[in-house]
Amino acid sequence: MTQKIALIGFGTVGQGLVEILQEKIDELDERYGYRWKITGVCDNRFGTVCHMDGLDPEVLLREAANGSLQTHRMAGDVKQFLDECNADVVVEMTYTNLSDGEPALSHCRYALEKGRHVVTSNKGPAALHFRSLSALAKKNRVRFLIEGTVMSGTPVLNLMDGPLQGCRVESVRGILNGTTNYILTCMEEGMAYADALAKAQELGYAEADPTGDVEGYDARAKVTILANVVMGADLPIEKVSCMGITAITPDDIAAARQKGKRWKLIGAVERNGGDVSASVKPEMVPLDHPLAGVSGATNALTVVTDLLGDVSIVGPGAGRMETGFSILTDLLTIHRSS
Amino acid sequence: MTQKIALIGFGTVGQGLVEILQEKIDELDERYGYRWKITGVCDNRFGTVCHMDGLDPEVLLREAANGSLQTHRMAGDVKQFLDECNADVVVEMTYTNLSDGEPALSHCRYALEKGRHVVTSNKGPAALHFRSLSALAKKNRVRFLIEGTVMSGTPVLNLMDGPLQGCRVESVRGILNGTTNYILTCMEEGMAYADALAKAQELGYAEADPTGDVEGYDARAKVTILANVVMGADLPIEKVSCMGITAITPDDIAAARQKGKRWKLIGAVERNGGDVSASVKPEMVPLDHPLAGVSGATNALTVVTDLLGDVSIVGPGAGRMETGFSILTDLLTIHRSS
pTM to 2 decimals? Predict the structure, then answer.
């Protein structure tokens, strides 16, 4: 059966996803028997289009490049869009809002209530309302899948839910923000914080307002997701202590080096008896620790388990195709189980 | 439905598996709705026992510790055992034979022909006959699952089959044998090869006859499995070039250090156009490469993919509980899909 997909948000990640789907159209059919069509795209800059027979991916990409979706245009708000495009899966890819999760939160809720699967790489709903959204999904017998919210397409949540099933996770600890890791790597090489930040901005790793990354808020959202998804906690994001990297000086870098260590912004979740606690803060990691060797924009996570001890996964933490892949893998999971 | 399990081979791994199943009996039921019973155990030293209502795990472990399985003893060969114990899943855990895969190969074949799922951590059948065994499984609508054959319980095959689904794997490259990595780590610290080997033997990492590890044959079997399972090749093990670590001298170690490198026994599989080639050989790895930081008996694998670039996983490569877990995770996969 052809999977009908609706996209909310058609920026970098959404366009990357459509490129991947189109480029792999034969491979996905041959390897997984997976066929898809995009029945609707809704974007607050480009407009909304919808067609039950499926929209032409090439037309979508071309029209988006020109700034406006035209073919099979429809009027109405997101709810009307979701009603009309009648998709099996709704992919939420609007901007991240870590205050109240909106508008993504409402999009996810409405879709789940209507019995649609939801896949999202948007950290807002996942970090703030994972428990209620997954309960809503369960009630409506659909999935709420969020692999892309932590370390983009590098498998973390799906790794623990699938291949690590049967293990009990005692703690997780990792480098979850590529921008700050890139800045720290530059500082290791002798740059001052301001210069390293400027370089990260130049390369597109850091935004014009870098607060969300450098103050640790992005990592905090991911740590909250890990606590609630992987460790089964119900931890509000405000309970996760958070310190960024803005106070780290070249002297601190030198002092760490003298001790055979290296600064890393570490996100950690730990079980203490029945309780789960979580934090984000810069730590001096010994040079022979696996996390010390993770440089640049790469991310890494070490999971401490009862049966396997430490298992670490290292991979990209951001990127157009990488996040697009995270959506694809969740779409395939839905396909496989349907 | 309660999963009925038959065990062939009841050594370290088999006993470890039963301990895990017993210890996690409530956790597995609560988290996955997974219930099991062991309807038979067949071991060429301890004898064969079988009961349709399930054998008592504590009795099994106690009797094995005393050298002989007694309660519900039966006569007959492995085929009669498999017929009588009527299991849903047969777990093959006899000794590894990389020449012709026997007797494990015949056990797997017979079980699959009779429509039983097969789970094994035995490298023999997987390295020598993966394609025919998986075809046989498919024909009989059952699974042939082998996570434990590479890096014990650290997810490799299930990672690529599940969370990395949708990615095309271009190459894999890793440290797949813990014994040789432990010896090389000791040599880095100043020991001669013979002393390092003796220490590995003392700790139980290396066997009395260490040939299979130090000549690279164990890594070659794993590389063959990766080529055939992950890259879809049909590569016979003899086609995998293989060089071990026995020729590495303290001078070689020093020479690598001077170049900012470190010797590692690297197993690699690469796609060249339509062809897949594979090798095992010692390589000098730059110190800042993720594989250089993997020390002691730990294993690691870097997968190069089309959409995510490099993804690495690091974890244990052997061990009683670790390999026991690899069996458990495959049992859960069968449970989930049934």
Answer: 0.95
